[in-house]
Amino acid sequence: KRSLWDRCFSPMGPGSLRGCILNYMISTLGTGMFAMHHFLDAYGLVLGNVLLLVFGLFFYFINCILAVAYA
C-alpha cells in the first residue's frame, strides 16, 4: 500500500484524477479572483463583503443538503 506522501506528492500523469482536480480548482479560483473586483466595485466594500459572506453561507448549506440527499 502506498504511503500518504507518495499518494499526495508523486508525479502526476496525463489524465490523472489529482491533475483534473488541481486544474479545476485553479481555474475556478482564478475566475473568482477576476470577478471579485467587479463585484466589489458594483456593490461597495461593506455591502460586497456582506453579500459575499451571505452567498458563501447559502452555498455551504445547499452543499450540506445535497450531501445528505445523495448519501
Instruction: Using the CA coordinates, give the radius of gyration.
Output: 18 Å
- Quaternary structure type: single chain
Beta-strand proportion: under 5%
Put simply, the count of helices is 3
- Which H/E pattern describes the elements? HHH
**Which structural class is indicated by helix and strand composition?**
mainly alpha
Average of per-residue pLDDT values: 90
Helical content band: over 70%
Question: How would you sum up the major sheet?
Answer: none
Which residues sit in consecutive blocks of at least 5 with pLDDT less than 50? none
Question: What is the rounded distance between the termini?
Answer: 27 Å
Shape: flat
What brief labels describe this structure?
71 residues; 82% helix; 3 helices; mainly alpha
Question: What does this protein look like?
Answer:
The radius of gyration is 18 Å and the shape is flat. The mean pLDDT is about 90. Helix 2 (about 15-45) runs antiparallel to helix 3. The protein has 3 helices and no strands. It has helices at about 5-10, 15-45, 45-70. By secondary structure, it is an all-alpha fold.
Quick rundown:
By secondary structure, the protein is mainly alpha-helical. It contains three helices and no strands.
